[in-house]
Amino acid sequence: MNKSEILKGIQNGEALPFKIAYHETYNQIPYIRQQFQLLEETEKEQEEIKSLSYDKFKLFWETGDRSIYQDAYYAKRKRLLLYAMLLWRRHENLHYKHELENVLWDICSEPVWALPAHFTDKEGKDLPFEKYEGQIDLFAAETGFAIAETLRMCEPFLSKRCIEFARIQLNKRIIEPFLDGNQFYPFEIRANNWAAVCGGALGCVGILLLKDEEKLTNFLHRAISCIEVYLQSFGEDGVCVEGVDYWSYGFGFFVCFADYLKQRTNGQLNFFRDKKVEQIALNQQAYYLVGNHTISFADGRDEGRYRIGLSMYLKKCYPAVQLPPLQYAQSILEDTCYRFCLALRDILWYDPNIGWQGDKKQSVWLSQAQWFLSHGNTFILVAKGGHNGESHNHNDCGSFILYKNGVPMLEDLGAGLYNADYFSNKRYDIFVNASRSHNVPIVAGTEQRAGKEYGAQNVLVNFGTIETFQAELQSCYPSYNLESFVRRIKHNIEENYIELEDLFKFNKPDVIQERFISRSPINIEGTSVVIKNGKEELKLYFDEGYDLQVLKEEYENHKMEECIAYILQASKKDKGNNVCCRVLIK
Fold this sequence. Notes:
Largest sheet: 8 strands, antiparallel
Mean pLDDT: 95
Helix content: 25-40%
Oligomer: single chain
Number of strands: 21
Low-confidence stretches: none
Radius of gyration: 25 Å
Shape: elongated
Strand content: 15-25%
């Protein structure tokens, strides 16, 4: 989108009314009443804010720890959200006013708004210290947007000095740096959620604060360039390969910006007319497999809680959007990063007249991401092709997830603990990111490698009575001895079983170790294996040509919880030039 188009759009509209009013009709909606009850209960239990001390700040460089500083950082953002929402609703409450002014002043007094892990340039090299103050990352952008919307909600109820200080900081930390064409930010070319969150949040701040049309045009041109990078990161199938949480995150900020832009230009600049945007909007429902269980490839997670305001807004834009059941909506404080704009829109965009989807799902092939979703009466099978250079990548080409009667049995462990090593050249030394933690084999003693060149080829799918996923995976492995590796997974819908068939061709005889991953205990019974999760059992049947072994691996998940993965390793006893591994799963 060029500057001429943006300027015409701006001239076609007018500045948004700066005040967002709380409507008493919100009190008639049970969901909204529950959220404010939660806010009031939480307010009574507020602890003293921990300082963002240098001792905490330096830990990332000294130990790789991100959590100690970030926990204190997020606690302030929680407090900002909490008291902004409460004062917005009850503006006569002097206690809420006092607390909001203090936390607003405190955040505006922080030396930097960016997080320690993000002081890097476009090559990933450390920034010189003198550039720290002007660094804009995900959370600096979010903080700026949160403060701007806090003012929009509560400015009439706050002291003039506090308001003026906040506006000065927004201008100093967000407006002026982003108007400076000599300052480049890595998120401007980062084709993932970064471009959407930073570009979207900054664009919203510009729309709210900039009155000069020329400055706003330049500001929005740069923000929209980020948004275009974000949209180009999707294939025509609209899949966010990073997982449903990153879909909500990046697309949520995109929608906030697109909505503001549409309003500011009186509908002339309208991203919602874009067919790709519509397809992205429709994909939240594909992530939800059964109940709140979601596809957990890459740094995803297997249980999703969705943003109800965002989803309802999209439903109004695109009637084909289906919402997961209400009980799987996030509460307003559930997001531990306390993303202000999405929480606010859970209130502003809630519509009691919108209904929810049923549990019955259709099988689908998402061609650009190469995700195969097969829904039967007993089994839900999700398999993927793709490549190992995806955003938030795990080395998992050809891996699959299997649910039986709504219960996870063969799993993808999702995201691990984010620390310095997790986003370094040590990433694939970490268990959850390596192919050995996925439902793919170790071939000729080698795991899959990271990089876009390591990817699935000749992917074929078929739907009907027997639904099939097939891919050539030879190029995912570094072994020069491997000539071909074709994986074929069949889901017999009528007879309720899965058949896995892996065909290997070697230049000279070599070894295969099939691996199957579960969070549930695995037991070997002769040539068969039983995985039990609660009352549900899954059986895997092998022939006598395998050595079966159950392994355990401890790992730390994204929530810093110590977990155990159970691994069935089925090793072919004999080497061969042509090896067929066939497993029946019921």
